[in-house]
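debug: dumping io for the single-chain case to check the tokenizer round-trip. Nothing else runs in this session.
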Amino acid sequence: MPDAVHFTRWEDIPSHLQTRTQLARQGLRPARGQAPVATMLNRLQPQAPYALYESGQAIPKRPATPAQCAALATARDRAYAQRHYGTCPMCGDTEVWRDALARWGQCGACQEKEELAQRDADRADAVAWARTVLADPQAMVLDTETTDLYGEVIEIAVLTMAGEVLLESLVCPTGGLGPSSPVATEVHGLTMADVAEAPHVCPALRSGRSHPPGREPDRRVEQHV
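debug: decoded output
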């Protein structure tokens, strides 16, 4: 197109000059042998400018046959699947969202199975550890009730493996983590009024016998509770 006009801004192009895409939106296409009369700069690919055609010379597009429409729909579905779906490396499912593959490296079903297996393994490890600890006759059991799942201690008890109660006391929380939640109160039956006059954690540990006879108290418990 040695004599073609070259545009660099869309707003400078007259309305009768249009690209193939613009013509197609109107149900038109360039006529056989119709050459572009101008170009528009393609900023992403300067070496491949957009061709502009005289819209007055364009002809109506031929309507697609049912077979062509079906083939186009199939191609669109395939392109959509390639963009949005991937294959799970564990089970081979080919319709896995790519977001899930990027996050977990596998499909949601396989990820759930893996989490359940890990949970069972963790539970088995915890049971084995607990049995080892409880088999020690010198071990002690510390039991607490709290204001919430991650709240403050409001009741504490320490027992030996023989069932001897070494310490049992209500505890007044500092209030730094808020009041007792209704769910927690429903579980242990304690309200803030029940523990208002109780000692705080460290005084509660110091009160009474908080360690077995003949054994020095472990001050680390007092520092970390």
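debug: round-trip ok. DSSP finds seven helices and eleven strands in the chain.
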